[in-house]
Amino acid sequence: MTPQQQERYSRQILLKDIGDAGQEKLLAARVLVIGMGGLGSPVASYLAAAGIGQLVLSDFDVVDLSNLQRQVIHTMADIGKFKVESAADTIAALNPDVSVTALPLALEGEQLCEEVAKADVVVDCSDNFSTRFELNRICVASRTPLVSGGVIQFEGQVSVFDSRDEASPCYQCLYKPVAEGEGETCSRIGVLAPAPGIIGSIQAVEVLKLLLELPTLTGKLLLMDAKSMEWRVIGLPKDPNCPVCSGSQPA
Ligand SMILES: [Zn+2]
After folding, report:
1. What is the extent of the structural domain holding 47?
2. Which residues surround ligand 1, an ion (CB under 5 A)?
3. In angstroms, what is the span from residue 100 Cα to ligand 1's centroid?
4. What order do you get walking across the sheet with 121-124 strand by strand?
5. Which residues are catalytic?
6. Global model pTM greater than 0.85
7. Which of 29, 141, 144, 190 has the smallest number of CB atoms closer than 10 Å to its CB?
8. Tens-of-pLDDT digits for all 251 residues of the chain?
9. Would residue 35 count as lying in a domain?
10. The CATH number of the domain where 47 resides is what?
11. In angstroms, what is the span from residue 7 Cα to ligand 1's centroid?
């Protein structure tokens, strides 16, 4: 690390679970973030601030005025720009140590497989079920840990699916595929501005802990109800009949 990096990351290097060696791991890491909206904004901002060396950001959408209520990585000046380009500009201004690859497209199929395989951790900040299920299948197949988050109205949830661990459930152990268009979305029923900020920040924490080999939410689901401000952690068992992750298990 350069003297400037030592200073930039000094408060984090002070943590006994991190130190110089941990910070070097973060600087050497590559993280793929799918979606640069309400969750992707805090995820990418905190991972960049924390010194993740390579961030790959994917989102096909452009910034719209109605995004700014919660997608805090973008500003008025970014309206009409690709979200990944707006996010890359914000990150460049925050921390030039971070190399950002901005992919202004719906990452899927072969290209998604390649990006997942190159990543140390994948973060699901998407807003639709087809992406969530496809991303989960690819992460299980390539044994890449996946940090999943979701928000709606006053509620949110986070989990880690770490398929390097034989006992870990996957996203599909928790949810069964639904027809596209089903399910509630923020654009239909709304979301409180800081809710994705809270959940995305927790996703960023889980990414850092995966890279630092600290205990994570693997096998657990964290649930937030911001209206009552009640939080719960429930155990998330692996589904022995899961078509995605059970096949790799010995009978
Ligand atoms: Zn599964």
Report:
1. 3-235
2. 170, 172-173, 242, 244-245
3. 31
4. 99-103, 54-58, 30-34, 121-124, 146-152, 155-161, 220-225, 230-235
5. 186
6. yes
7. 190
8. 999 999 999 999 999 999 999 999 999 999 999 999 999 999 999 999 999 999 999 999 999 999 999 999 999 999 999 999 999 999 999 999 999 999 999 999 999 999 999 999 999 999 888 999 999 999 999 999 999 999 999 999 999 999 999 999 999 999 887 766 666 777 788 999 999 999 999 999 999 999 999 999 999 999 999 999 999 999 999 999 999 999 754 43
9. yes
10. 3.40.50.720
11. 42
